[in-house]
Write a structure and sequence with these properties.
There is one protein chain. The chain has a single domain, classed as Lipocalin (Beta Barrel). The chain has one helix and nine strands; from the N terminus they run H-E-E-E-E-E-E-E-E-E. Strands 1-3-4-5-6-7-8-9 form an eight-stranded antiparallel beta barrel.
Length: 154
């Protein structure tokens, strides 16, 4: 009888073991939610000269990218109590003027910030651990992202 009760307790303890998943952690217990890098929008500037950039809650929206180890990403934008997401694949590429993070979206999205009609974004990789959006080159906002979580910068 003791062995039966002990066996049942052992089975119950094994079945009730739950995993806690922290979506903000790159060390999650579930590989489907873990990410390598989190890049947070930290500065936004317009195309008007002599206007200082905005930061923090003064920016028109809040936004970040999560880069996953399977070369997929999620972009999240929060604006006016509304949260929008878009996902796709990414790769680091080298162009004549430097290294870039290229984000490819499978579908059109209003979150794509670029100078073309392609469903891609290019972000310049800076040595000081920042990504600079290239949308500003065609009168879009100047966007600066800083790495705030995950592994070391590329």
């Amino acid at each position: 009888m003791k062995y039966l009760i002990f066996g049942l307790l052992l089975i119950f303890a094994a079945c009730s073991d739950s995993q806690t998943i922290d979506p903000e952690s790159s060390q999650s217990t579930d590989n489907t939610t873990s990410y390598l890098d989190k890049w947070q929008l930290v500065e936004m500037s317009g195309s008007i000269a002599n206007v200082p950039p905005t930061t923090g809650s003064e920016m028109a929206w809040q936004e970040y990218y999560l880069l996953y180890d399977d070369n997929t990403f999620t972009k999240v934008r929060e604006q006016d109590d509304d949260t929008k997401e878009a996902s796709g694949t990414y790769e680091f590429i080298t162009l004549p003027d430097g290294e870039y993070l290229e984000l490819s979206y499978p579908l059109e999205s209003e979150l794509i910030g670029n100078c073309t009609s392609e469903s891609k974004e290019l972000l310049s990789v800076q040595s000081e651990g920042k990504l600079i959006g290239t949308w500003w080159a065609c009168d879009g906002p100047g966007l600066v992202y800083k790495k705030v979580g995950g592994n070391s910068a590329q």
